[in-house]
User: Fold acid phosphatase from Drosophila grimshawi.
Amino acid sequence: MGNGQNYWVKAKTFVFFSLICISCFGRAKAQCPSDIGGEAVAEGKQQASLTGQLKFAHVIFRHGDRMPINPYPTDPWGNPKYWPTAWGELTNLGKQQHYELGKWLRKRYNCLLGSRYNRDEIYMQSTDVDRTLMSAESHLAGLYEPIDQDVWNPQIKWQPIPVHSVPEKADPILAAKAPCPAFDYYLANLQASSEFQSLIERYENLFNYLSANSGRQIKTFIDAQYLNNTLFIETLYNKTLPVWAQKVYGGANLTWASNFAFSVNTYTRTMARLKGGPLLKDILERFEIKIKNQLIPDRNVFIYSAHDTTIANLLNTLKLFEPHSPPYTACIMLELRVDANNMPLVSVFYKNTTAEPLPMNIPNCGVSCPLAKLIDLYADVLPGNWVDECKRSTLTMTYEEANLAAASGILICIIGVLLCASFGLMIYYRRRNYSMYTSYAQMA
Ligand SMILES: *[C@@H]1O[C@H](CO)[C@@H](O)[C@H](O)[C@H]1NC(C)=O
Ligand SMILES: *[C@@H]1O[C@H](CO)[C@@H](O)[C@H](O)[C@H]1NC(C)=O
Ligand SMILES: *[C@@H]1O[C@H](CO)[C@@H](O)[C@H](O)[C@H]1NC(C)=O
Ligand SMILES: *[C@@H]1O[C@H](CO)[C@@H](O)[C@H](O)[C@H]1NC(C)=O
Assistant:
């Protein structure tokens, strides 16, 4: 708030650090001052001053502008000839958006990343989907323009940088699409609950209206969200919506239903543990390993290129989600700082507008949360062995399944008893034969 003195202290600190860094490291990466975002400080914007020196950042973002994924059956804009590229793909605008976010990240993490690409400093992972892979590549183009000996073609201000990926069905961490029967069970249970049923009842008229007009069954909040998203993109691309859609699109009910849909998959803490937990665990474990100086290679930045659902699930798992549709390039940053006493501290930022993000208030811990306390606070959503937890125990079965399980259990018991009995009989007769034999032998 226009505190002149504070401004000068900050500006001087910034210049001081910059000079030290330039003299010590030349073109290498700068040491991280506790206030990052030097430019924002110089511009006198409100900037969080967090305790400690920045050591590590996890960045999780949504892809940029894209095409509708799957237009609805009666869609007047459902013909690809009206669109610049294929369904679900990243557009040129989306490429530009991520290129710019990459430039923004360069400023923010200039002290963690050298100006030349170095695989021992950064790791980029993407879900195995075209638009997230392409977003990751556009992002890296902004983050690492080739310089010096990395310039391989003077006409091309871009260099190839690896983006790692795992097939969606084999990825419980980022895509969160690896099969998990226990999760499916909890979701079905939630949807059958009276709380949820009464919510769906309230939106039944809307869902029926959407089904009748779009030619597609809209039964759940997530179905409604997909349709809302197609209408959203068509509006963005200046395509006139049919009159029936104009009556509901942008209205409070459809918007609420779509926003609410983003909280469904992490609605209970058990669901959050199975859906968002693996990614949170991955991040927190890496912080711990980094702090112990055991991260190999000893990287400083991990970037994850993913989806609106990834953003919503992670925020909700952290109890930081306010129902909304995460926009293109929405970006969560989990940063690790170390204070003068070597205490590791975690801060969470959420950038979903062009404004500089502020640290979020972690429930019961604040903006700068000791790592150990953070792990404690979220213990309920950090899975132990996720694969085992995803298996269905009889506790998580429906009555019919449990009855079936009980029936087969009894059958197995009966077979077991019979086997034991015949085994016992066999041993008995063998012993008898043996003792007869030994008695003969002793006689010899
Ligand atoms: C929203 O839905 C309620 C029923 O749940 C309905 O009464 C209301 O008219 C709807 N609002 C709009 C703007 O359509
Ligand atoms: C749903 O529509 C609203 C506009 O009413 C938009 O702000 C929001 O981003 C849309 N949600 C999705 C998932 O597209
Ligand atoms: C849609 O129209 C607005 C206002 O005329 C314009 O700024 C924008 O570029 C148009 N969008 C597209 C994708 O053509
Ligand atoms: C940005 O995030 C805040 C905090 O979750 C949320 O309240 C707001 O609606 C979001 N805005 C946009 C444009 O996504």
About this structure: Residues 1-5, 11-28, 37-47, 434-444 have pLDDT under 50 and may be disordered. Residues 237-238 surround 2-acetamido-2-deoxy-beta-D-glucopyranose (ligand 3) (CB under 6 Å). Strands lie at 53-62, 122-127, 164-166, 301-306, 331-338, 344-351, 369-370.
